[in-house]
Amino acid sequence: xAKVLVYSELNKGNVKPVTLEILGKLNGQDAEVAIxxxxxxxxxxxxxxxxxxxxxxxxxxxxxxxxxxxYANALHNFIKDGSYDxxxxxxxxxxxxxxxxxxxxxxxxxxxxxTNFIFEGDTFHGTRPLFAGKxxxxxDLQGPKPHFATVRPNALGMPETKxxxxxxxxxxxxxxxxxxxxxxxxxxxxxxxxDLTEANIIISGGRAMKNPENFKxxxxxxxxxxxxxxxxxxxxxxxxxxxSMQVGQTGKTVSPSLYIACGISxxxxxLAGMRTSxxxxxxxxxxxxxxxxxxxxxxxxDLYKIVPILTEEFKKILG
Length: 319
Ligand SMILES: Cc1cc2nc3c(=O)[nH]c(=O)nc-3n(C[C@H](O)[C@H](O)[C@H](O)COP(=O)(O)OP(=O)(O)OC[C@H]3O[C@@H](n4cnc5c(N)ncnc54)[C@H](O)[C@@H]3O)c2cc1C
Prior knowledge:
There is one protein chain. This protein is an alpha/beta fold. It is about 25% helix and about 25% strand. The chain is built from 9 helices and 17 strands. It starts with a strand and ends with a helix. Flavin-adenine dinucleotide binds near residues 234, 246, 286 and 303.
């Protein structure tokens, strides 16, 4: 049995779902969770229900605001004397930012952005996409422990059965150490919508959206089905949508249950960011658009006619 520490990121005090996805795959391992920030007793209980034996609430100076150096230092100081075999975290913006720093402090291997992993006995085997998702690499980690891995949100899915852990919570002091780059302000997105990388449903618009105003039809549909709106790079470069909405090789990597691509041709760089979506629906006027080769369902037609019809139908079904 391996001893595994899962770093749990918080969103407005709530544990990000990827933590629970990871815990669900740790059945049979000794799973513990580390959290930096204020977390409610209710959320601590949830972590126990999903399999955490211990929940360490790290507290210390200079940890009130996220900083890659501070968080890496704090976790390093917390685990350096520990006996963890593996440290896992979500491949979120923060996870991708600071976990490599942490792994470097241990001169240890990191399997980044895994879309799956299994434990054989106490040995981790990860799977991660390479070359814009064209092939999958099996990754084993060697060398001194702990070993590190980040896991793409939504890739594992929420566990069907929970393997309850002891759920013992305790405070631990954490030293953020010497921080050279001070984060003065973090500007949160004005949108209340779930971040693209964690969204369960995404509806994206491409160059065919023609202007920012037309994204309203996607917003309307999104509000009915609880989706987050994304965009292709052509739409972003044309000024129709902000860069934070870009999906793809140089944008965000997403793995939702449902991805609806509207007026997006399906360039390899766009596919790189969304090809691990569980179900892909494409709406495009061109029947030969490459996106149809990757789509589970394709609608050949004008998005300006199709999307409003879909929105109305979804309203009827979902109320
Ligand atoms: C290094 C590099 C990195 C890149 N990174 C990214 C990235 O991260 N993300 C990304 O998306 N791209 C990226 N690109 C750009 C990528 O190559 C494509 O240019 C881009 O994805 C095209 O966007 P699009 O599909 O919206 O536009 P287009 O390729 O122009 O496609 C528009 C589609 O809309 C359809 N259409 C037109 N009108 C309608 C209508 N009324 N209804 C329905 N369909 C309609 C057309 O048939 C067409 O298929 C990158 C390129 C490079 C070189």
